[in-house]
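User: I'm new to structure prediction. If I give you an amino acid sequence, what do you actually give back? Let's try with this one:
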Amino acid sequence: MYRMMYKDAYQYVADRDGIFYYVRRVPNDVRQHYASSRISFSLRTKSHQSALRAAKSVTQRLEDYWLGLRLQQMDIPAIHLVKTDDVEDASPLMMDAVEMYLSIKGKDDRTFIRTARRNGEYVSKVLGNRPITSYSSSEAAQFRDWCFEQSMNINTVKRVFASVRSIINLTMREHGIEGRNAFSGTFMPDRGDASTRRPIPADKLRTIQQRCQTTDDEPRWLVALISDTGMRLSEAAGLAKED
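Assistant: Good question. You get back a string of structure tokens that encode the predicted 3D arrangement of the chain. For your 243 residues, that looks like this:
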């Protein structure tokens, strides 16, 4: 059972079997963006004071996110008086930033290249292939929600955001662009859908290694090497026979 501890308006803390949780109802005006009417997740602490500090931080980030959602729904007063042609955003477009990032990194890893381009294409598809400094934090939150809608789990979404952040951060540094990366600090809810990879059982590994000895060829050398050392595929494939 939950035992609620609302000591202040900005703290939503519940004690469940000695572990503190953040529990809060989603406001009606942003309810359409959520699959549930209530937010509830573990603060991963047994300390009441630590839970209160964490809850205060979570509350602030939620309020900022909800404010962004509310502003998107508002009609902007006197929008017809706003000049749109005085200031031009000269920062690189998202996909140009991806190519610059790859050229600077200088990696030949096809998986790395494919992943960076795919994540850049995700952003361009959802938010448009725009100058990298033109994205807003509310749009980053919109992009996060789109990722979840594509059935990505929380770990995958975090990896996508880490890749996009790296691309934009490096490009901004190379161009001497001041400002904030909109994809930094985006709130990631604890959805409880993170998957844990299990190791291959030892008996399965032994079977694989035994079968690798039946034929003397490069693919089986590679599999045997990986199963013995735990190397990554790219590391093992990059070795010469003499090594």
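You can read the tokens as a compact description of the fold. Here is one thing that stands out. The mean pLDDT is 82.
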